[in-house]
Amino acid sequence: MKIYGYKRRAATKRRIEMREVKLCSNPARLRELARFIKRCADGMEKDPVRWDHQHFAINGKVNFIIANPGITA
Fold first, then answer.
1. Residue 10 lies in a domain
2. Which of 4, 22, 28, 67 is the most buried (most CB within 10 A)?
3. For the whole prediction, is pTM greater than 0.85?
């Protein structure tokens, strides 16, 4: 598993690999995210050749993206 991200206020939109992620949330939102991750895993398992990626938007400000490593680099 690899984790990527972008700096909030960067001069360039360059994706960087991260070694750690911290999620600050309430239990309801974490369960919603867990269901999203499960749906993504199920979709990836069902169609590994065509399942590319999915976005989980949080308040229109933060995107949590799950990507198929076999398709999306």
1. no
2. 67
3. no
Taking Cα atoms as reference points, which of 57, 53, 56 lies closest to residue 72? 53
Length of the chain: 73
What's the total number of domains in the chain?
1
For the stretch 20-60, pLDDT in tens is 989 999 999 999 999 999 999 999 999 999 999 999 988 87
Q: Which string of DSSP letters, residue by residue, matches 29-58?
A: HHHHHHHHHHHHHHHHHH-TTT--EEEEEE
Provide the domain limits for residue 55: 25-73
Is 32 within the bounds of a domain? Answer: yes
* The pair of three-digit structure tokens given for residue 50, joined into one six-digit string: 């065509």
At 4, is the pLDDT very low, low, confident or very high (cuts 50, 70, 90)? confident
Strands (DSSP E) along the chain, which ranges? 3-5, 16-18, 53-58, 62-67
Q: Is residue 18 part of a domain?
A: no
